[in-house]
Design a protein that fits this description.
89 residues; mainly alpha; 3 helices; 45% helix
Amino acid sequence: MDPLTDDELDHFIELRLRHMGIDLSVLPGEDARAPADRRRVLAAVRRLLRDQMPVVADLALDPIAWPPILYPSGLAGGDRGSHETGVGP
């Protein structure tokens, strides 16, 4: 697969950010005096993606290992039901 062009990455970045509720269109296109502008934000995210994607792509997962769990303490047992549902000892 050929690497994505800057335009393709920009489109991907804008779609992903918009999906998260971040609208880059409110930033100036290019303004050296602004704390952030679209050109610098897109360049920084493109750089991040290009630097990190090979690391993620080369990651080898162990199919036998347990997957990460968001809240492992909730699976440990105990009196979980009594304080969440009001039922139990």
